[in-house]
Write a structure and sequence with these properties.
Order of helices and strands: HEEEE
Structural class: alpha+beta
């Protein structure tokens, strides 16, 4: 007499595959926006880094010349312009005189992961947290200063 052999198949069922796909979809739904925000935050940090270097160079220039420079090219820094921002022009700040104050604004250009064009402004006192000057203040998830 011949014994009946039970044949077992190794593999995944359609239900198991569907569950895995749903789990991956849910994880991606949470991870992708956070990833986009962290990438944009690192790009915004480029502006803060650049403007911090300008601020320090402006203070050195002011110590030598008794006025702030009206052009970043006059400063003693070898810093390339930011890749993701356009650099504005140095202007007189709150006192309307370059001897006492200055302001410089960078504007985000190109695709910004859905955050739109935003600005980062520095003065002789550092980061200008005024929402009308630094529109990044309205973007808490990408603002590296998170003030």
């Amino acid at each position: 007499m011949k014994a009946n052999k039970v044949i077992t198949r190794a593999g995944f069922t359609l239900v198991e595959l569907a569950v895995v796909i749903v789990i991956i979809g849910v994880l991606a739904a949470f991870a992708v926006p956070r990833f986009k925000a962290s990438v944009e935050r690192s790009k915004a940090a480029e502006a803060f880094n650049y403007l911090s270097a300008v601020q320090a160079a402006q203070e050195r220039y002011h110590a030598r010349q008794s006025t702030y420079a009206d052009d970043v090219n006059s400063l003693d820094i070898k810093f390339t312009a930011p890749k993701y921002f356009t650099v504005g022009t140095v202007a007189a700040g709150r006192t309307s005189d370059l001897q006492d104050s200055w302001t410089l604004t960078l504007v985000r250009v190109g695709a910004s992961a859905g955050y739109g064009a935003y600005t980062v402004t520095f003065t002789e006192e550092g980061f200008d947290t005024s929402p009308t000057k630094s529109t990044i203040m309205a973007q808490d998830e990408i603002n590296p200063m998170q003030t």
